[in-house]
Write a structure and sequence with these properties.
homodimer; 439 residues; alpha/beta; Rossmann fold; Dihydrodipicolinate Reductase, domain 2; Alpha-Beta Plaits; 11-stranded mixed sheet; 5-stranded parallel sheet; 15 helices
């Protein structure tokens, strides 16, 4: 039987899971591929720890001793990249920097396939990597880079190919979803929920990218390239996180039968794609409102088949690793016939501020007569239809109230707010909070 | 560019949808395949009607005139099967009989790929067809045979290949789900809900296979072969339908925070697979309880990734057709590298009467003292733990009450019922209704 040999760079949470699956069910996976899938080498700076933690024989790890130096690790990496008997390398070191980009490019330039979970690298430096793959006629598997265990990449590339995808929306960051779920269900404030997420291991020591929408943004950029063929840079996509969501916002959401979720959103209208990452008020009728804790979920609407929903684990060791191993199987089966199937239609990216969402605008104002009239008049003058004005909370000298609009653009809302400020400079005690509603 | 030529046999709801997609987005699909996907011929006995209904140019249809005779159609079918310039034939005639089996075998024996939505044929006569494909090294695509637009077949064959599937459960028959939803939400009885389903076009004129579980059984048999490599005959699988579900059962379900759903269930425990199709009380916490109307949903639990959920349209013209076109794309891309990837592990099928479900048993008895004691004692003697005894409905001279058990086998329950009958032959006014609970 043909041999197909694998090396792994970086044996942490995800790499360790890959090593574990490749050793535990080697025969099943080999039978699925019609060739022997052999784990050959692992390069990891703490081989003893990783070997014990993920129950992977020490013999797979390069180097002697409990730990190896970075210099040694780099030498082993170069040795593996140069080795003629390795067919595919799994990169699970992580990070988006010159060092990792060079490793990934070297893997492809050496004539090996690359499988990676590195969403930051693909989102920020993907075009160089995709080009290296195309030039060398090698494959990049990146199923694990978007939504962990959910096979969203293959579902789009290989399964929904008898159709045209019109929109993709979803919950793609488990940490922020866990925090928002705690705020909704246990009335925690943001800081306490974040602390709990860190204690439980759902949030990193530095949770910045999870809570500011950066991680979700990485995933949406990868999907935009895959589904619509659009190369987007991080600073071109409007991204906001959940760090400013308060218990009051959660309360407003409940009032309108919604839950606040950090949503990745991309919708095609004719030749334009509107996209954004931001917290949205998700109506209870939308199944995304039921996705709580660290679970991820994606809603795909296509022209002929209508709605597809996928739900699964967004992170975790063997969970994410199962997606990497599935990439290995797919490449072992089909590499010679695979092409770089990004969409190739002529299609434009449009900032989602031009997309017509219904919005919730929350105003914090002086508690004095005439303000509702002032605000609603200004909103109406911008041709924004108001759906409801609700929930006046009176707190000492201030009032908080929210307006639910009919679909309009963010530009219209910004103009309305500017008019309110111009008319009465002290009426707004803070910047109004503007959150789209997802039906 | 390479040409890949398609013919369609049978241009009804599904075949018409395929013809429509293949003509409407020919360029997109061809770009995805890296070759020109050309619809060449359609054999249909009512070409004029189909051409107009599905907006497909008349020139694709074999024969002149508004309708063609069966003899003519058979001749055209044989001509297309013999044609050297056709690469793949879509069979959307339907039915499970010698005639269709021969057509499908002839397609494969002529060296062409076959794509079909024919679940009855694959479930009842699949092994002959699978063998013909293997012998000729040709592919059978059957994505559309299970759950319409949901890409469940490719998800299992191609996406979840880095894992071991432990269980598959789901709602795979839209008609029965529509009927049950109406019974739950609008308090309709079974007969009225069925009539409404027929009026709305969700149920066929002869709805037997939808309501007796036969259609769902076909789908589960196909999945059992795919996931676990088990060749199962219809009479080996325990199948019951929804025809005996009453408003009282719906009421009991509501009381225990559940909804009744027709569930396809297969679960692996070590080397055994337990499988059944029957109505179950699905707990509100289980997302399957939220799947209403004609939608389908599948819950896959795997060893490494945990839970995967897929939801989508279970039927419909372009919905089901999108799955067929996706098969065409996959075959055009990969046929030369595709193998017949059914699971090959040594695994046993076990009747689900040996599986330990929690059950709801509903008794209709004489309304007289001592019966609860008699029944619960008999149940306890069979080592069945009782969870709750609930809801005594007293109707003239009879009482209806239900027992929720802790997990036990159907054998234990049958034994308990036999003991009750033996002790007091007139106490049970009808056969007790036994429904598993799905958590």
């Amino acid at each position: 039987m043909k041999q197909f040999n694998i090396a792994i760079f970086g044996c942490g949470t995800v790499g360790g899971g890959v090593a574990r699956i490749l050793t535990e069910i080697k025969d099943t996976i080999s039978q699925r591929c019609g060739c022997n899938i052999n784990l050959k080498k692992i390069v990891e700076i703490e081989p003893k720890f990783a070997s014990e933690k993920y129950n992977v024989p020490r013999e797979f790890f390069c180097g002697d001793g409990d730990i190896i130096s970075r210099e040694e690790a780099n030498k082993f990496i170069q040795d593996v990249i140069s080795a003629s008997d390795i067919d595919l390398i799994v990169e699970t070191i992580g990070g988006s920097n010159d060092f990792i980009e060079k490793i990934c490019a070297d893997i492809l330039n050496s004539g090996k396939h690359l499988v990676t979970a590195n969403k930051a690298l693909l989102a920020e430096r993907g075009s160089a990597i995709y080009k290296a793959a195309e030039k060398n006629n090698k494959i990049i598997g990146f199923e694990a880079a978007v939504c962990g265990a959910i096979p969203i990449i293959k579902t789009i590339k290989e399964n929904l190919t008898g159709d045209q995808i019109l929109s993709v929306s979803g919950i793609m960051n488990g940490t922020s979803n866990y925090i928002l779920s705690k705020m909704h269900d246990e009335n925690m404030d943001f800081a306490s929920a974040l602390m709990l997420a860190q204690e439980k291991g759902y949030a990193e020591a530095d949770p910045t990218l999870d809570i500011n929408g950066g991680d979700a943004g990485h995933k949406l950029i990868i999907l935009m390239k895959l589904v619509f063929g659009i190369d987007l840079k991080m600073d071109e996509l409007s991204i906001s996180g959940i760090q400013d969501i308060t218990i009051d916002d959660i309360e407003f959401a409940r009032e309108i039968n919604s839950r606040i979720k950090l949503i990745c959103f991309a919708q095609r209208i004719d030749g334009d794609i509107y996209a954004t990452v931001c917290p949205m008020m998700v109506k209870n009728d939308n199944f995304l409102s039921d996705i709580n804790g660290a679970t991820n979920a994606v809603n795909i609407i296509s022209k002929y088949a209508g709605k597809h929903i996928l739900v699964g684990a967004g992170a975790g060791s063997t969970e994410t690793a199962s997606s990497i191993v599935a990439d290995i199987v797919f490449i072992a089966r089909y590499a010679e016939k695979m092409e770089h199937h990004f969409a190739k239609e002529k299609i434009n990216f449009v900032d989602a501020r031009h997309f017509k969402f219904a919005y919730i605008i929350t105003f914090e104002t002086e508690d004095e007569p005439g303000i509702t009239g002032l605000v609603t008049t200004a909103v109406g003058e911008q041709k924004i239809n108001i759906d409801t004005v609700s929930h006046n909370m009176h707190k000492s000298h201030k009032a908080i109230f929210s307006i639910a609009t009919m679909p309009c653009t963010l530009e219209q809302i910004d103009n309305a707010i500017a008019v309110i400020r111009a008319k009465n400079s002290h009426v707004l005690l803070s910047e109004p909070k503007v959150i789209p509603i997802l039906y």
